[in-house]
Amino acid sequence: MTEAAGELPPPGHRVIHANHSALGYLMAIVGALLFSVNGSVSKVALTSGMDSLTLVLLRCAGGMICLSILVLIVEPGRLRVARHEWPLLLVYGVVGIALVQWLYFVAIARLPVGLALLLEFTAPVIVALWARFVQHQNLGRSLWLALALSLGGLTMVAQVWQGIALDLVGVVAGLGAALSLATYYIAGKQAVTRRDTLSLAFWAFVVATVFWSIAHPWWTVAWSVLGRTVDLQGSLDQVTVPVWGLVGWIVILGTVAPFLLVIGALRHLPATQAGIVGTVEPVMAGVIAWAWLGEALTATQVVGAAIVLAGIFVAQRATSQP
């Protein structure tokens, strides 16, 4: 599942075309790779003077503009919204899009990018708990295995025997992003039964943009930061770019492009398989952050991360079968 994003389409949206699975896997992997690179790009932006509230406001607004153009080109009639759809759209846009992106930005500003994504990606375990205790689905032992693997792995990642070796605010933000992402899946699964994914994404970004425009009004944005020239840090510290260029990357190549790639992948793959491919995102993000920003993990944290990924895999399999 994707970063911040809140950027993967909700499960349940799939139109499978036979003999196109290779294309679907390619699109899913490229989408996950773009999301992974976006983690390091976002961290550079956040450590270059831009605050998380401004970045999430610009990301939501930029995504809204790009998606509106796409919807208007494809089919303007899709933008109609019935009155009964608004409550679900508000929850989906505020919690599933607006908050998940902001909490993710807070997490990567305080934690290694790979670990922040790993915390967010525990959302499928939360979805499995919801399916078991709220929807009363029989998940058998898979739920408890997924929960045990995830909690055990997170214990190793946080190295709790050292009094939690990670930044506490970052950990709380990462887990908050997981809760928001779980809401994204749960609300999104209901929303896609009422409208197509593209228009759903557009209205979700509209709601998120309005939410952040109220919480962090546009007149409070320090626009001068966008004109600042910064280096890319780490192994790319000799390369300088304007901050507005980083924001442009985050909006286009870090949000809209990978989002559409994953939507395209779901036309050729079952949602479960696409979701499993998406679990490579924390791994790729961690490797990129290590090579670019020098964010290294201890051997214990690497093992713990692998155990968490196993738990996420089990949770996704368990919730897909019912």
How would you describe this protein?
- A two-stranded antiparallel ribbon has the order 1-2.
- The protein starts with 20 loop residues before the first helix and ends with a helix.
- Helix content is 69%, strand content 2%.
- It has 322 residues and is mainly α.
- About 5% of the residues have low confidence.
- It has one domain.
Secondary-structure element series: HHHHHHHHEEHHHH
Radius of gyration using CA atoms only? 19 Å
Helicity range of the residues? 55-70%
**Low-confidence sequence ranges:** 4-19
| Physical arrangement of strands within the biggest beta sheet | 1-2
Number of domains: 1
- Shape designation: globular
Helical segment count: 12
Structural class: mainly alpha
Give the tally of β-strands: 2
Fold blueprint:
Elements: H1 21-46, H2 52-74, H3 86-110, H4 113-120, H5 123-133, H6 141-158, H7 168-191, H8 197-215, E1 229-231, E2 240-242, H9 243-265, H10 271-278, H11 280-293, H12 299-320
Antiparallel strand pairs: 1-2
Helix pairs in contact: 1-9, 1-11, 2-3, 2-8, 2-9, 3-4, 3-7, 3-8, 4-7, 4-11, 5-6, 5-7, 5-12, 6-12
